[in-house]
Amino acid sequence: GRKAPTRKNGGTQMRCRGALCALAIVAALGGADASQAARDQKWLGKLSTKARNLRSALETAPRRDLSEHEAALSEEEEELLKEEAEEEIIMLKWATVIGIAALGATFILGFLAESIHLHWLPEAAIGVLVGMFASGLALMAHSDGLLEKEKFDFEFFMIWLLPPIIFEAGFNMNVQAFIANLCPTAFFAFIGTFASTFVVGGLVWWFGQMGLCYPLGMLAALTFGSLISATDPVTVLAVFQALGVKIDLFSMVFGESVLNDAVAIVLSRTLLSFNNPENPVDAEHILGAGKLFLIIFIGSLLIGAVGGILSSLTFKLLDLRHHDEMLYMEAALSFVFPWCAYFVAEASELSGIVSIMSCGMVMATYTRPNFSPRAVRLTARAYKVVALIAETFVFVYLGMATITFPIFTYTVWHFFFWATLACFVGRLHIYIGSFLTNCFRDATSKPPPISPAYSFVMWFSGLRGGVAFALASVSYVAGDFPSTCGGFDGDDERKQESPFCSDNEHNDSLAMMQATMLIACFTIFVFGGAITTICIYFDVLEPKKGAESTARSKMLSAMHQQKTSTQLMVDDGHNWLLKMLTNEQAYEKSDELRFDDDEEKGDEEVVVAEVEAELGKNAFTELKSEIMKPRNFEKGATASEMAANPDTLHAALGSPALVRTATKDAKIDVLRTRLPNLSTKDLEKLLEGAGGDVDLAVKNAKAPINTPPALL
């Protein structure tokens, strides 16, 4: 038998194995976060080399005798690795602090700019400037570790930033207006993006062949055309909402932006499948690529739709809208389905972005009617807050990327100029789509024909941003197109003569990334800053409504949104799906740009919806007819004040039964805010024991000896 190792050898081997385990733990911690692993590729490579050296030392070391010198080296190596890991963690924490501080600074500076009417400097541009400043400080401090942590990471962007933006866009969009303009929107997003890809890609390739700019290879040019066709009009849409543009224009720009990003991501991924010697560009592989695109897009849509339908059925069966104490759980549960849909699609090698967009639209149509009135507002606002944080940080992240990536090293300025011109030409599909749409519309149709003013504003709204740069940056990091002047491959004479090919360290992927960043900054600052003036000049704003200062107008406005005035969005033949997934009988119609536009009116709607639910349909109809009489409405009172004040409500309704019911409901709401730990049933008992006196009910609840017998 083999002789057992001595204590010295055993201890040395254990130390080597301990070092290997430490390496494995560090690598696992880095791998647990996809974005961390991508940013730290270089560092992990060094760790892997050290791990291999340690493993080799362990395997080749004598079984019986291992020198003390080698053992000491292993201990030093382990200590060095520990120090490096600690330094990495510290740098990550400081980068996080800087990112959060930059986000806060963007919000503050954006508010100040808006308050002094600096319309030419949108919040997105401020975010880019703040990001540049943050990374610029790290550069001047020669903190390479901090710069590495601030580098734009594709996985972080695609997992943590883009999904909440896309979901909120689908969840809070005006689905009725989107469907009414579905044909032109689909043309702009699908056919338009395909056309833009080949127009932009073909032009930049031709410009390179003419010697006007850096020459990209054909596949690189088409890939650039696909990623640069991803519009990102966050700035434009923010201005649209602030100014109040006409709803048809907003729905088309908004719908195109949501669908366009998803199409561009899938299309660029499909084109990159040809960047493989085993996939030559022939008819068979082109058809295969088209099939791959359809599989990814349709499969992702179906996964998102299934997630939305499951959420609708879940909320319908649980019936949480009749459990007021479950308000926050009701909102939290809605989070589960879209993100499950996203990761199911990603795990299936489909598109999570398409899936979460589809899930958001289905949930907006079929899940929201199953929410309680307060959960409807809570979810809309909560997702809006998360999306606002994400989309603002996208621009901060872009600003940081201008410093952390070699954007201004051997910059391809000529290529940027001609690529920008190609983007302008590529957006002309807006006019083609508008012309084709108008062939099926006339002055009496609804929606009306797309006017030339609408077409120009839509063409002008094609900003580039986070999605385009994310796709370009991941292509650069992966080295998809490593050739220098790929458009001249096989022609060494032209490469030598071209002034754009003198630097051998430059390559097609770097040129694409530089041009994408420069185009994004140019459109954000110039087009984003000018969009306010453009909207006013072309008069695409909704007419301003007169001030409504009386409570009667507020109450009637809220009641106008209730089910008693519901209009069908689609034919009656499609109502079976709504009836199956919800407790509603018809789709509601909304005239707002987005679901969460009118915050003040939203609170009034909640009050009215709760009164209707408490009174029943017949009693609520009586309440509505009585309030519509001006003589019965006390001037200056809000709907909430009416519900809480018995005298005002009695004067309006003349019905003691209705007064008691509505007043009780309002008082329970007041008690719920002051005694959040009690259930609705306990609050009702408290209120009853206090004779309807809210203050006395609160006092009794806080003084156990005075608690009404009903609660003992």
Strand content: under 5%
Distance between the ends? 79 Å
Task: Tell me the radius of gyration.
Answer: 31 Å
- Mean of all residue-level pLDDT scores: 77
Give a count of the beta strands, DSSP E runs of length 2 or more: 0
How many helices?
32
Q: Uncertain segments of ≥5 residues (pLDDT<50)? A: 1-44, 58-66, 545-573, 597-604, 628-662, 705-712
| Coarse structural class | mainly alpha
> Shape, please?
globular
Largest sheet: none
How much helical structure, as a percent, in the residues?
A: over 70%
Topology:
Elements: H1 7-32, H2 34-39, H3 41-60, H4 68-115, H5 123-140, H6 144-149, H7 154-171, H8 175-180, H9 182-209, H10 218-228, H11 234-243, H12 247-272, H13 283-318, H14 327-333, H15 336-347, H16 352-367, H17 373-404, H18 413-426, H19 429-438, H20 452-460, H21 466-478, H22 492-497, H23 508-538, H24 551-560, H25 575-581, H26 599-615, H27 617-627, H28 639-644, H29 646-653, H30 656-674, H31 680-689, H32 694-702
Helix pairs in contact: 1-3, 1-4, 4-5, 4-17, 5-17, 7-16, 7-17, 7-21, 9-10, 9-12, 9-18, 9-19, 10-12, 10-23, 11-23, 12-13, 13-15, 13-16, 14-17, 15-16, 18-23, 20-23, 21-23, 24-26, 26-27, 26-30, 29-30, 30-31, 31-32
